[in-house]
Design brief:
This protein is an alpha/beta fold and about 350 residues long. It contains eight helices and 19 strands. The strands form three sheets. Strands 7-8-9-10-11-18-19 form a seven-stranded mixed sheet, with helices on one face. β2 and β3 form a beta hairpin. It is globular. The chain binds zinc ion (2 copies). The site of one zinc ion has 5 residues, from loops.
């Protein structure tokens, strides 16, 4: 029997009687990371990797019933050995390794193969079956090294500051914002953040991640000259809100893997797109899959069809798992079907 199956509530382990990142409330939820499409409220018991505890509590409530394990620490539950291993996606993100009856399954959650210095780097885990993220499971998705993207952001910021324009960069408030803060050249000017970003910054700093000083944009007056030289980080949901009225003259940009598609920037209506993702690109997915040594693959998220087809051509046993992952509001704007169809091979 399969160690993990798909149920209306989410991915379910029958032997251990628990769910992994369920999208409906259940009794026992094992959580890979704190993004909204994976960590939902309303579960009775939560189990997660220890470095993600503070973020989970900020997002789901301080009083949730949460048990944590260090990376690599093993828990025996109903005969199933369970452990968490770094996924390199955001602080505390983990792959879930399950071992039962001599068989090993790994559920990746979301993962990224390029280490970024803001969370534990992705560690491939050998297994028989690998449940893999395939958000960017198309050959067109190939990321540049992140240093190049940070250099582009620095350049854009510097050019805007030179003409007294604020640089407003939209990015996911959990993970992406901290990665950008960690990567950019903080000497270029003051850095302001949206109120959704600062609480997460605090948790990263407490975890020992170096982030430059940031100021809540709400604490700075519209007329303050520092506004005009500032880089501002805000979630994409702030883009068309009244929160933007505090900026007089600004250029805006969006940092997302979806920026690889030209239509996304146009539809979102920003001046600049920076291709920066916290998910593995196509070569990263194939590398990770190979490293696991798995003969059976289950793909979740977005473009699983193309990845499954490709893996089957490699004579691997691959299928798609129907999940609700990828619905995180902030992770939008994911491309429209038609837009994707245009770039499919
Ligand atoms: Zn995620
Ligand atoms: Zn996800």
């Amino acid at each position: 029997m399969d160690l993990v199956i798909s149920r209306p509530e989410g991915l379910y382990c029958p032997a251990g009687d628990f769910y992994i990142d369920p999208w409906r409330p259940v009794e026992r939820a094992v959580i890979t990371h704190a993004h909204g499409d994976h960590a939902r409220a309303g579960n009775q018991h939560y189990l997660a990797a220890a470095p993600g505890e503070a973020i989970l509590r900020v997002r789901l409530g301080q009083d949730i019933n949460l048990q944590t394990l260090r990376y690599g620490e093993r828990l025996l539950h109903h005969g199933v050995f369970l452990s968490f291993h770094p996924a390199g996606h955001v602080l505390g993100s983990a792959q879930v390794r399950l071992e039962y009856g001599g068989e090993v399954w790994v559920a990746s959650g979301d993962y990224k193969t390029e280490p970024d210095g803001t969370c534990a780097a992705f560690e491939p885990v050998r297994c028989d079956t690998f449940i893999t993220d395939s958000t960017f499971g198309l050959p067109i998705y190939r990321w540049q090294p992140q240093v190049q993207v940070f250099a582009e952001i620095n350049q854009w910021w510097q050019a805007n500051a030179a003409v007294e324009k604020t640089s407003v960069l939209f990015c996911h408030s959990l993970g992406k914002a901290q990665r950008i803060l960690h990567g950019i050249d903080a000497r270029l000017g003051p850095i302001l953040v949206h109120g959704a970003v600062e609480p997460i910054n605090r948790i990263y700093r407490e975890a020992g991640v170096h982030l430059p000083a940031t100021i809540d944009a709400a604490d700075i007056k519209k007329s303050d000259p520092m506004m005009r030289k500032a880089l501002v980080l805000a979630p994409p949901s702030a883009a068309n809100s009244s929160w933007m009225r505090r900026f007089v003259d600004y250029s805006d940009g969006l940092a997302s893997g979806w920026m690889r598609l030209r239509g996304t920037r146009r539809r979102f209506g920003v001046d600049r797109g920076f291709v920066l993702s916290d998910h593995a690109d196509w070569p990263g997915l194939l590398w990770a899959i190979e490293q696991t040594g798995a003969e059976r693959l289950m793909a979740t998220h977005g473009s699983s069809g193309a990845l499954v087809r490709y893996l089957r051509e490699q004579r691997l046993d691959a299928m798609a798992f129907d999940t609700r992952y990828g619905e995180d509001e902030e992770e939008n704007p994911a491309p429209a079907e038609a837009e994707l169809a245009a770039v499919l091979p």
